[in-house]
Design brief:
Elements: H1 11-18, E1 32-33, E2 49-51, E3 63-64, E4 67-71, E5 77-81, E6 84-87, H2 94-109, H3 117-124, E7 137-141, H4 147-154, E8 159-164, H5 168-176, E9 182-187, E10 198-204, H6 213-221, E11 224-235, H7 241-253, H8 260-266, H9 268-281, H10 297-301, H11 308-320, H12 329-332, E12 340-348, E13 352-359, H13 361-369
Parallel strand pairs: 6-9, 7-8, 7-10, 8-9, 10-11
Antiparallel strand pairs: 1-3, 2-4, 4-5, 5-6, 11-13, 12-13
Helix pairs in contact: 2-11, 9-11
Length: 371
């Protein structure tokens, strides 16, 4: 697996991204809460952050709508735009920003939350259950439109800090602003601007879109305290060989380069065909299972009751991104080989991988000392 090269971005490009001139801007009455500073650090030096002296006064309920955060260590300033702190390092790989911008197009178009998202979420992070999130300090690596952020916040997490690199963070904030325990930040998962204090961290459907998925997982786990747990869900190569052989070349060469409005239209015919196939052949049985004699039986059966626009969004999701790795088991399993205990990797319906482990840094240190 080859990581994409990293290029320094010129100041004007970064300014355009942060000011909303690239991608789709959403302007909501959303706020940054002062409590978020308990969990955030400077992305450049990991120093303490505070509200800048020239930041407009918080409104009556204590929320900051604009202004900046300042680092006590390196004195860097970071913008608060529309209530969201933007904690980006000085240089970001171009491919990261392109990927974030492309997904922002998706989440600002298909922005609503659905009742079945909670069932999906716990299917992806099993064997975790709602009780595992209650009263926990949770870190989410890649929040998209905030569907999982809202679920975890409503389950009674002590706090959830959700990170995303793109403007989809504004959509996530709009969906979670009513939860005092939810904090959404724009930042880089490969260098997350949060403290290593979390009880539980998870990343669903994000690591395989990073230039280096293994490094992304390691970065996610590094923010979990010893004895805490980390969970993830990623695409699998097993069972998806036809995608890597036939679809991936088209995505890389064509669809990931198309303007998002045109791609949305281009995705309608395959979405109609897929929706019809699911309705005709993948009705779930009484046990919720799909037909065992058809490919993607359980996977498509789980989507049987989805409205058409969800299927359309799923097709768009597969074709919009410049980066998507389909990972083999022997690529994923080493992620949990050192520094963890009670590690388990399971195949999710035969087409993806779910992992869960408890962080055990003393085990990793002992292994290194005996090395």
């Amino acid at each position: 697996m080859v990581s994409a090269p990293c290029f320094a971005l010129c100041p004007s490009t970064v300014h355009n991204i942060l000011s909303g001139r690239l991608g789709v801007s959403w302007f909501f009455n959303i706020e940054m809460r002062r409590e978020a500073l308990n969990y955030l650090v400077c992305p450049k030096c990991a120093g303490e952050l505070s509200v800048s002296g020239d930041t407009p006064r918080a409104v009556d309920d204590g929320h900051f709508m604009s202004g900046a955060l300042v680092c006590s260590g390196c004195t860097s300033k970071f913008t608060i735009r529309n209530g969201v702190p933007i904690l980006l390092p000085a240089n970001l790989a171009t491919v990261k920003l392109e990927t974030a911008s492309r997904f922002a197009e998706e989440w600002t178009r298909w922005s609503d939350l659905r009742d079945y998202y909670e069932r999906e979420f716990f299917d992806w992070v099993a064997p975790l259950t709602p009780r595992d999130f209650a009263n926990q300090l949770v870190f989410e690596g890649g929040c998209g439109k905030g569907r999982h952020t809202a679920i975890v916040a409503e389950l009674g997490a002590k706090a959830i800090v959700s990170l995303d690199l793109g403007e989809s963070a504004f959509v996530a904030f709009a969906h979670t602003r009513q939860f005092s325990n939810a904090h959404v930040v724009i930042g880089d998962l490969l260098d997350p601007p949060v403290r290593p204090i979390f009880d539980l961290a998870f990343s669903v459907g994000v690591l395989h879109h990073l230039p280096d998925p293994a490094a992304g997982f390691a970065s996610l786990a590094s923010r979990v305290k010893d004895g805490g747990r980390v969970a993830f869900w990623v695409y699998g190569q097993e069972g998806n060989e036809w995608i890597t052989r036939y679809v991936d070349p088209v995505r890389k060469a064509v669809t990931s380069r198309l303007p998002a409005p045109f791609l949305r239209i281009a995705c309608i015919p395959p979405a109609v065909a897929l929706w019809a196939v699911i309705k005709l052949f993948y009705r779930p049985g009484a046990n919720g299972k799909g037909p065992s004699n058809l490919p993607y039986g359980d996977y498509f059966a789980a989507q049987y009751h989805y409205p058409f626009d969800e299927i359309h969004a799923n097709v768009f999701d597969q074709l919009v991104t410049p980066v998507a790795y389909y990972l083999r088991e022997d690529e994923v399993r080493p992620w949990l080989a050192s520094g963890f205990r009670d590690a388990e990797i399971r195949s999710h319906r035969g087409y993806s991988w779910t992992g869960l482990a408890t962080v055990n840094r003393s085990k990793a240190a002992a292994a290194e000392s005996h090395g």
